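Subgroup meeting minutes
Present: P.N., E.W., G.H.
Scribe: E.W.

1. P.N. recapped why we're keeping a running log of single-chain structure predictions: easier to compare across weeks, and new members can see raw inputs and outputs side by side.
2. G.H. added today's entry (397 aa).
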Amino acid sequence: MKKQIIKQAAALSLAVAVMAPAASALSWKDGAPANYHFTYAGDNGGIASVTASDKNGTYQGGMEVGQTITTKTGTIVWRDSYTNVTTFTVDVKPGYVLSELTGKVGDAQFTAVDEDTYTFQFTDKGAEAWCYGDDVEFTLLTEKIPYTVNFYADGELINHTKTTVNDPLDLSVVPEKEGYTFTGWYVNGEKLTADTLTEDLIKLAGEDKTLDLTAGFTINNYAVRVEYYEDNTQGQPTSVLDTRCDYGDIPTVSKDYKLVGGGEVGPITGDTTLKLVKYSPVVEDDWSYEYGFLYNSKDAGVQSVEYSIDDSKYIAIDVNEGVKFETSLVGDNHTRTITFRVQVADGMKLVLDSNGGKEVTEVDGWYTFTFTRSGAQGSWIGKNVPNVTFDLTTVEK
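Output recorded in log:
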């Protein structure tokens, strides 16, 4: 009887062995796979993307807020598929860091891969079909990174502020540069068009979270009128040139003319009218009745100069301008007088230097000097000086 039982057991074992496949031939899906659910519950902004994949290859792709995905594990203990690892990869937008992983996540924590990418994982093991693992529901929280923004004008730091992504840039400081117009702020040669710290600007910041902005300027261009006169500016100019010059440029003018008021034509600093005069001395001839008077120079103490011929109305005159008149052999114009009157700075007095006399009179705050001419230059009474040149300086009283 015992022998018969042993034979029956051996036969049963042989039947089972014939009917069951080898363990290596089993699919991990055999044995009712277990499902695990993962829900992306939400975030507070700054997330560029979330992707998920698992070791068993049951899910691979992106996730949106509110989406639930499912990964599977095998339930055959000796198969590799019995243990599954689901990995989530989070990319944050420029200017953000992932600061917290919250929700139904157990003890899971995230790890930084680089400054913009983070990962976290969940490990699940297979179970009987009626005994699945806990579902996961996660929320991602981010923080904004503070950036320093430096403002440079002509290499000088004129302002620096701190801000974060999508927050305002402090553009209140507008640089000034003489002769130039501010055109805006530039980054790497490109003009700034936004008034907030955009994601594109953050990409241009240095590793130290610093963004340098450089002021841009264009040189000003000015209207310049050049008026040419003969002897003085009492009449109309003999010619006029209208042109334009950049700030700091010196316009080209005729070398035969001098600047009214003295000095040289200098760099242009604004819209300008230049008055240039060419004084021609009278012809020196004993039988000539023409006389000339040239205002040659002055110092800073001289404020104004005017002239009057034969008690006529006073007319203003300046350095490099001259005055001419004619006498006659007989009659009312035989003897003529030109008077110059000068105002000087307070506390100063006038000094006259001329080839026609140096006598000065002070009356009612004006300094005056006169020249009188009678008849021809070579008058029988006495030779007249045909061309008078005078220079004016001042000294303390």
